[in-house]
Amino acid sequence: MEVDNSLEISFDEIAKEYGDMVSSICRRMIQDPSMAEDAAQEVWIQIIKSINSFKGDSKLSTWIYSVTRRVIISYCTKEKKYTTRFLTNYFRNGKLEIPKDIDYDKVIWIKEMCDKCITGMLHCLDNEKRLIYLFKDMAQLEYKDIAFIFNKEEAAVRKMVSRIRHKLKNFLNDQCILYNPKGKCDCRMKKLVKEINLNKEYEKIRKIIGKVNFLLESEKILPKKNFWKNYI
């Protein structure tokens, strides 16, 4: 694809500024890793194709996340919403196959499994609510920008995010040792998490930074990928 040379620096800056976050949002929105990667790369393609349509009527970040919303929602048509009861039963009793390959890295595997659990946990929300929550608590967008992206009243977005946070907090407080080491967590990963002291990594960050956002905290500790890296 040919690109106007005058935009090369802008594209490079966009990729460096937003590549990680767009990739993370796609990963949290879509459970199939290959489909999440496809969605992230489609966002990049759409940005390249339509950058000239950006007239500065909103912040560049708002425009980028508007493109992100359109693409992700189109990819999320087959994503299911699960009840918290279903998720609790699955995290406790779901089939767990520990790799037997002598070359596998146990610590990385455990972290990847916990990362999948967090993505699964977010699927107690429907697609739109999940994306609104991710825009707020991962991308750290302002309420007014999220309202603009979703064509909603700011007050409605504030109320929605508040309810989502309350729902997730109640679930995580009881079901996730990484979120609450003193909770009632009895998930299939609990023993392995303690074995590699992953819960201690979370506690260490909390002590250093104070009360931190659980999703952003997880991005610092658990594996992540920048699906844009091959395009920079």
Automatic annotation (TrEMBL):
Domain RNA polymerase sigma-70 region residues, every copy: 16-81
SUPFAM superfamilies named among the record's database cross-references: Sigma2 domain of RNA polymerase sigma factors (SSF88946), Sigma3 and sigma4 domains of RNA polymerase sigma factors (SSF88659)
Domain RNA polymerase sigma factor 70 region 4 type per the UniProt entry, residue ranges: 117-168
InterPro entries: RNA_pol_sigma-70-like, RNA_pol_sigma-70_dom, RNA_pol_sigma70_r2, RNA_pol_sigma70_r4_t2, RNA_pol_sigma_r2, RNA_pol_sigma_r3/r4-like
Top-rank taxon, per record: Bacteria
Keywords: DNA-binding, Sigma factor, Transcription, Transcription regulation
GO BP: any one term: DNA-templated transcription initiation
UniProt GO molecular function: DNA binding; sigma factor activity
Family designation: Belongs to the sigma-70 factor family. ECF subfamily.
Classification via PANTHER family: RNA POLYMERASE ECF-TYPE SIGMA FACTO, RNA POLYMERASE SIGMA FACTOR HI_1459-RELATED
Protein name, UniProt field: RNA polymerase sigma-70 factor, ECF subfamily
Organism of derivation: Maledivibacter halophilus
